[in-house]
Specification:
Length: 898
């Protein structure tokens, strides 16, 4: 890699070829490290949240993958055997939905083609498109070990799912039950509680009158879903409710349906809700279902799977959609004078997380995991410190969810996924249910025919196993021994319960150890209005488009620098420049600095440390040299600590400051005359610049891998196959830390800054030299000024730098933080007459503004009528104008304008 760098930085020209080279070299495998040379400490293992196999790259992946890659590259350079394990998720509902939509284009449903053909078509689709998302991740620079890529429907992962199901069944932790579950009438499947996302909506509460059967009275019940009254089988009141004592045991006539139902007493009824009497619909509400069980009430299921009214309801309702049925029920009750009251009501409605349809509570036979026994150790692991959340507050969410955990409905009425490994025998006198690791051809009880359960398992029932199933479990593989448990899990907060918490449970249950010790939950990518980016809102930013235009490094830099621990990242889809230019500008700056340093090298570089004959001696270093070495060392400490503490934005900011300001703007500018031979010490300057730049490249590599590798490999003497990603992480150097140097060079910077400030303030032409007189009232003048005299004169364009007291009166003046005064005579640097006149007219303008404002604020009409904040604002304006006027008056005095 000795060819010179292109004059311009073009990310598209370097990124893709470099990624191909990394992959070819196998750098992302944990086995890539030279044995013995690195490999310190325990392996560092990160499980990538497997994207859905049908997914297309969005900014959420961009953020999630970037954070992981930064951590992985950091630990890899620290010499740990590092495994970042990627995979894809078969994503039951999501993938099935995509293929069903494709069928629908031909006017077909999955039932038209049949189960086997449908599954075959999904596989075809997955094989055609499956790798897309993974290739897209590569464009981000993702250093995952692709040689271990898994798919959750791979044979070994499917075997793990069966093993898990069978073991839990044998332990009594998996069971089949007849319960009310969340049902999606569009996807036609059961959902877990987590998959039915609760959303607050404005709804209505209807108060309905149910007439008593034996006299003219009635009882009023309140409901938010009046259509379910078609399936009511009782009215319930609290047993201690004084108002209803005389009604308990009596009968009401269910209106619309005209069916007699009893009034019962049950402790579960909340006397404060509505009238205190509630309708009981055991087939359509979980609480009612429990009441029905306790009282032996019939369950009448009045809805089809599609949420239409079933044959169990009166004929005129059959086939109606649930919302049409609601309107009709209300209309009939109203006509009969039985609608007592209608009130607005806010409550939470569950929606399918895949298609956003309102879920319907539905009574059905499903498979469940008993969660309480799994949650207990998961809670204990957190409480005894085996798990750490970053940010810490997420630990409360985790605790709360586990404490209130309910059983997990794991069966799905889908065709795409792991089919439930349960076989039923229908033979009379046998009827055995068999749960098996291997497919059954005959009933183990009677040898008769069996049929397998039609349903598949929740997608998350396979992904909660990946920390060990992806390593070969249940087989005891070498990988499993080496890489379980892992270390850090990096995830979006949205899947804390779906995935993160469940992996902890399964890890403890099957491996006896938590799958990772650190859980880093990053924020969400949002638009300028703080809305989550989504396809439906059309407010997303395509990461691939950004990479094409700005480069992956710029994208990564923007994401990392835009987030603090656990906070959201805000990017504006309407202002890509504002969101990503900072990263590209930084890369440009780096490129130019790199080109300058590398092109200055024309022979061997002297080492800064070590037992070499030509090592740079301490007494050869100038103040600037010692300062940049100390700054570099401080940056090593700061950024390393920030990476360790997941404060990636701080790590990036620390290296940015060093590279942009300290190295490029100050040090490189400082050493130019030495490098050009105008001043001595060129060799030393080049040694210092090369060394500190190289260290900074390594510190930045985790965030901006492409440009840092490209520049790093151009350093002279690199073996052709060396990669920065396996180079050792920089260590702090105790000899480099130098507080006095930092303070002394800081004064030099301050002095240069002050003179530049005076030049700008008085409009001195950029090329025009000025004189400067530096003096201090008390104590000795810092020797730093003498030592860096040439630097001060060149960088502040000073033709004559003197120390002492000024005898001149006309000029600009500033005081540094240590009390040093600097005076810049301006008589010969600017056109005094013009500057005086300019100041005069500016003072006159401010004078006018001040007067007008004073009159305005003296007007009692304005002050009493205008809102307080408006008056306050006007007062601040006045104060600011007065102050500006004073500053200019003083300036005129300094210039001796008279
Ligand atoms: Zn759905
Ligand atoms: Zn049998």
């Amino acid at each position: 890699m000795s060819e010179p760098l292109a004059p311009q930085y073009h990310p598209s020209a370097i990124e893709a070829p470099l990624y191909a080279w990394w992959e070819e070299r196998g750098l992302f495998s944990p086995d890539a490290m030279a044995p013995g040379s690195l490999d310190r400490g325990s392996p560092y293992v990160v499980m990538m949240p497997p994207p859905n196999v049908t997914a297309e790259l969005h900014m959420g992946h961009g953020l999630n993958i970037t954070v992981q890659d930064v951590l992985v590259r950091f630990e890899r350079m620290r010499g740990r055997k590092t495994l970042w394990l990627p995979g894809t998720d078969h994503a039951g509902i999501a993938t099935q939905n995509v293929v069903e939509r494709r069928l629908a284009r031909d006017g077909l449903t999955r039932f038209d083609v049949g189960r086997d053909e449908f599954v075959r078509r999904v596989w075809t689709y997955v094989r055609e498109t499956g790798a897309t998302i993974l290739d897209q991740l590569k464009a981000l620079g993702c250093s995952a070990d692709w040689s271990r890529t898994y798919f959750t429907l791979d044979d070994n992962l499917s075997a793990a799912v069966r093993e898990c199901f069978v073991r839990l069944y044998q332990q009594g932790l998996v069971y089949r039950g007849h319960y009310i579950i969340n049902w999606c009438p569009r996807c036609l499947t059961a959902l877990s509680n987590e998959e039915a996302e609760k959303q607050e909506v404005d709804a209505t509460i209807w108060h309905l009158r149910y007439p008593l059967a034996d006299d003219g009275g009635h009882v009023t019940v309140a409901t938010t879903r009046p259509e379910t009254m078609l399936g009511d089988t009782a009215v319930a009141v609290h047993p201690a409710d004084e108002r209803y004592q005389r009604l308990i045991g009596r009968t009401v006539r269910l209106p619309v349906v005209d069916r007699p139902i009893p009034v019962i007493a049950d402790e579960a009824v909340d006397p404060a809700f509505g009238s205190g009497a509630v309708k009981v619909t055991p087939a359509h509400d979980p609480a009612d279902f429990e009441i029905g069980r306790r009282h032996g009430l019939p369950s009448i299921d009045v809805m089809t799977p599609e949420a239409r009214i079933s044959l169990a309801a009166p004929a005129r309702f059959q086939g109606l959609d649930r919302y049409d049925a609601r309107a009709r029920v209300i209309a009939e009750l109203d006509a009969a004078g039985l609608l007592e009251k209608v009130e607005p009501h806010r409550h939470a409605v569950g929606r399918c997380y895949r298609c956003d349809t309102a879920v319907e509570p539905r009574l059905s036979d499903q498979w469940f995991v008993r969660m309480e026994p799994l949650a207990r150790p998961a809670l204990a692991a957190y409480r005894n410190g085996a798990l750490r959340f970053i940010p810490e507050r997420r630990g409360d969410d985790y605790t709360q969810w586990l404490e209130g955990i309910r059983d997990w409905c794991i069966s799905r009425q889908l065709w795409w996924g792991h089919r439930i490994p349960v076989w039923y025998c229908d033979a009379a006198g046998c009827g055995r249910t068999s749960v098996s690791r291997t497919d059954l051809g005959a009933c183990p009880g009677c040898g008769g025919a069996v049929r397998q359960d039609d349903d598949v398992l929740d997608t998350w029932f396979s992904s909660w196993l990946v920390p060990f199933s992806s390593l070969g479990w249940p087989a005891r593989t070498e990988d499993l021994r080496t890489y379980y448990p892992g270390h850090t899990l990096v995830s979006a907060p949205e899947i804390l319960f779906f995935w993160v918490a469940r992996m902890i449970m399964s890890g403890l249950q099957f491996m006896g150890e938590v799958p990772y010790t650190h859980i880093y939950l990053h924020g969400t990518v949002r638009d300028a209005q703080h809305r989550k980016m989504s396809k439906s809102l059309g407010n997303g930013i395509d990461p691939l488009g950004v990479i094409e235009r700005y480069g992956a490094d710029a994208l990564r830099y923007s994401l990392v620098s835009g987030m603090s621990v656990g906070t959201d990242v805000v990017l504006d889809p309407d202002d890509l420049e504002g969101s990503f230019a900072a990263g590209r500008n930084f890369a440009n700056k780096l490129w130019n600095a790199g080109r300058f340093i590398l092109s200055s090298i024309d022979g061997p570089i002297r080492p800064l440390a070590g037992p070499h004959a030509n090592v740079v001696r301490r007494d050869e270093l100038t103040l600037a040299d010692r300062w940049i070495i100390a700054r570099c060392d401080a940056t090593v400490r700061e950024s390393t600590e920030a990476y360790e503490r997941f404060r990636l934005n701080e790590a990036a900011a620390s290296v940015y400051r060093f590279l942009w300001s300290d190295l490029a703007d100050w040090y490189i500018e400082q050493i130019k005359p030495r490098l050009y031979g105008d001043l001595p010490g060129g060799e030393v300057a080049l040694a210092v610049a090369t060394r500190t730049f190289e260290v900074a490249l390594r510190l930045l590599h985790p965030v901006m891998p492409f440009i840092t590798e490209t520049l790093w490999r151009r350093f002279p003497g690199r073996p052709p196959d060396a990669s920065i990603s396996l180079s050792p992480w920089p260590r702090p150097d105790p000899r480099a830390a130098d507080q006095t140097t930092a303070g002394r060079f800081g004064l030099v910077q301050e002095l240069i800054g002050s003179i530049r400030g005076i030049r700008a303030e008085y409009g001195v032409q950029p090329g025009h030299p000025v004189r400067a007189i530096v003096s201090q009232d008390r104590g000795r003048l810092s020797t730093a000024f003498a030592e860096e005299r040439a630097t001060i004169m060149r960088l502040a364009k000073v033709s004559d730098l003197t120390f002492g007291r000024s005898t001149e009166r006309v000029g600009g003046h500033a005081v540094l933080s240590d009390g040093t005064a600097v005076f810049v005579p301006l008589g010969d640097a600017i056109d005094l007459g013009r500057e005086c006149a300019r100041l005069r007219s500016e003072i006159d303008r401010l004078e006018g503004l001040v007067q007008g404002q004073e009159e305005k604020l003296a007007n009692p009409q304005f002050v009493s009528r205008a809102p307080v904040e408006v008056v306050d604002r006007e007062r601040s304006k006045l104060a600011a104008w007065r102050e500006q006027r004073e500053v200019l008056v003083r300036k005129r005095e300094l210039l001796g304008c008279g």
